[in-house]
Design brief:
Helix content of chain A: over 70%
Order of helices and strands of chain A: HHHHHHHHHHHHEEHHHHEEH
CATH topology of chain A: Na+/H+ antiporter like fold
Number of strands of chain A: 4
Mean pLDDT of chain A: 87
Oligomer: homodimer
CATH class of chain A: Mainly Alpha
Shape of chain A: globular
Structural class of chain A: mainly alpha
Chain lengths: 415, 415
């Protein structure tokens, strides 16, 4: 075991130093730290292009992805902790409209450009390519808003709610499109009932998390508080975060949706009491948020890794770059329809549209499933289309922070 | 990526809850929490024996071992932080004597029982089996001492120093014995020079860590303190911990030796300033130790996993159990010679001997190397001997906490 861990240790030390240094550098020039972390990752991951091959193994270092995944779960859990469920519900109608528009428009545009670029492919293939553009990956936007101190604004709540809803809608689209493709390929009838059950499970989980989540979470933390030892409520909170994420994954949603839900129903005050400090007067005092040090360790690992995965060499592949740029353009433009879904007056509609741009894991998972489906003997998602989706995910991720910062600064110059 | 992570999330939630609950239970009956975590792991890992197979995948869940390894590194880093280098040097002569006795005696006894049990094997095989008993795994002992609030006693410092030294001695023994075996098997002469270089590198690392480590660590933290953003010194400390651990691994030592050295040369005050809290008077205050929440998350994962790896079914293998128990007996007895190495008066010699009992990764790694070496066509470490070493590691790990607690309580009843 010890020998396996060495590449991970070197990777971690490098990622932590590069991520924090670049983050600090970007903060100093008024940019969010997350942009620095992404850039640090891109630089470390593409040193091979400059002839430096010592770090080529970094992108695949065993364990980095695992720590990154834990990091993004904890990040979304903390975002949930700081989000007021009632305030989120208050903008629920907007979130729903934003999510619906943000699924339909990119999907339609994506199918259109696929039909134009690959005229000989069957229509179901175009529908599938469109489906890879549907789900927003809320991590980047939430992080930019947090870096700018705007996480608890109305725009942020609308985006978070819409991201949860569009994860469900994306699951619906994937289930239906993949189901129709599988049925067509095998000459069977599409099984609408089992497709409905897939989506029903996801909705059931979300409803249960919101209705039962709070009493369950409260009860668990109350029991934890009565156990001896330090940090018990922290451990209980982490277990709830991982447990909710696991459940979300089991019903087909992104685990971060579960982690966010776990944070939404938890009470930050329980966590602040995890490590009481004895003051001079002998009384116990709550210290800072115990999740903050854990997040400071693991969250940058996720964002640096996202940068590491941007393989600049992929941009040079002939025949891929053109379609990738087209796909990215409709991915970005498609989500701007979200602005029309904001019902509140005085709300920054453009910022909501920009905040919905990032695509992530879910798009990659959709594309990955597409590579395993066949239609008339050919894979639904060809290697070239898969590469294009990977580039689209990278570009939408990188484009969001600067666009969002520009927009929010322009609207709030006095901040 | 997201789909792979689900088994890990379920395993983590279960490990955290079971570990903390069992730890709290054992604390309530006056036992160290670590014993509860080990027992929780054994129970979870062996439910298959009771017909419950739902958790059979837990032991191998992708990622648990990685988080556990990070946890034990951070634990040893914190032990190093709380250890005063000067006070450790003051008991250095004892540590050296304890380490030397604790390597020679178990090795000699181990070779003897191997020669008795496997009379037809060549002497080099017996020497190799003896070598698997040399290195103390200091994690368990350090944790028991910390749980009992005795981490900064003289006995603790002697044990820590001896564990660092016996890691070097173990490396020396392994290099020489494996080198002689490889030379004998291939009919070459033993290359003493390259064996000396293996050990020289390790000594060089330790010397450099102790001499250059403090200025390097100081300089890194000073630079970190001047960067904007929260948690910068924490990130720098983590990077130093992982960097030192990586270096230790690269020179052939256990990574935890590097993590301990990193903690030894760091200043806890730098860490306490990582997350300043703004008080009512507007001034910034240092909050608690930011490593404590990270440790509360990851350290129990290591100790629960050690329990998970105790495969009770292995005890039932015919022909293995007898030798395993014999090996365990000499592993325990051999380290009691360490008591003779304690030079300080009024020091609890018995506690030092008990504290040196646990064997861990290093013994397993030695045995693993032995399975890849051959002598006259047969592997130096047979599958049966390997299983016996695994059982010996488990039993010495489990035996230490109760023995150490009994001894320390008996000597300090007023605590």
């Amino acid at each position: 075991m010890s020998a396996d861990i060495l590449p991970l240790l070197a990777a971690l030390a490098l990622i932590l130093v590069a991520g924090r240094a670049a983050g600090a550098g970007f903060e100093r020039i008024g940019q969010p730290a997350v942009l620095g972390e992404l850039v640090a990752g891109i630089v470390l991951g593409n040193l091979g292009l400059a002839g430096v091959h010592a770090l080529d193994g970094l992108r695949a270092a065993h364990g980095v992805a695992i720590l990154a995944e834990i990091g993004v779960l904890l990040f979304l859990y903390r975002v949930g902790l700081e989000t007021d469920l009632a305030e989120m519900m208050a903008v629920g109608a907007s979130s729903l409209a934003v999510a619906v528009l943000g699924v339909i428009t990119p999907m339609a545009l994506g199918a259109l450009v696929s039909a134009w670029w690959f005229p000989s492919s069957p229509p179901l293939v175009h529908a599938f390519v469109g489906a890879t553009l549907t789900a927003t990956s809320v991590g980047i936007t939430a992080r930019v808003l947090a870096d700018l101190g705007r996480a608890d604004g109305r725009e942020g709540r609308i985006i978070l709610g819409a991201a949860v809803i569009d994860d469900v809608l994306g699951l619906l689209v994937l289930t239906v499109v993949a189901g129709i493709i599988a049925a067509a390929d095998h000459g069977r009838a599409f099984d609408a009932l089992s497709a409905a059950w897939v989506v029903g499970k996801a909705l059931l989980f979300l409803a249960a998390a919101l209705v039962l989540g709070r009493p369950v979470s409260r009860a668990a933390l109350r029991i934890a508080e009565r156990l001896p030892g330090r940090g018990v409520t922290l451990v209980a909170a982490l277990a709830l975060c991982f447990g909710f994420a696991w459940l979300a994954g089991r019903v087909g949603l992104a685990p971060i949706v579960g982690a966010f839900a776990a944070g939404l129903v938890a009470d930050p005050a329980d966590l602040a009491a995890a490590f009481p400090a004895r003051a001079a007067d002998g009384a116990h005092h709550a210290t800072g948020d115990p999740l903050e040090p854990i997040a400071a360790f693991l969250v940058p690992v996720f964002f640096v890794l996202m940068g590491l995965r941007v393989d600049l060499a992929a941009l040079a592949q002939p025949g891929v770059l053109g379609f990738a740029l087209l796909l990215t353009a409709v991915a970005v433009l498609g989500k701007q329809a979200c602005a029309l879904g904001v019902l509140e007056k005085g709300c920054d509609r453009i910022a909501v549209g920009l905040g919905m741009i990032p695509r992530g894991e879910v798009g990659l998972i959709f594309a990955g499933i597409g590579t395993t489906l066949t239609l008339g003997g050919a894979p639904v998602v060809s290697p070239a289309v898969f590469s294009a989706v990977v580039i689209m995910v990278a570009l939408t991720t990188l484009a969001t922070p600067p666009l969002l910062v520009m927009r929010l600064r322009a609207r709030a110059p006095a901040r």
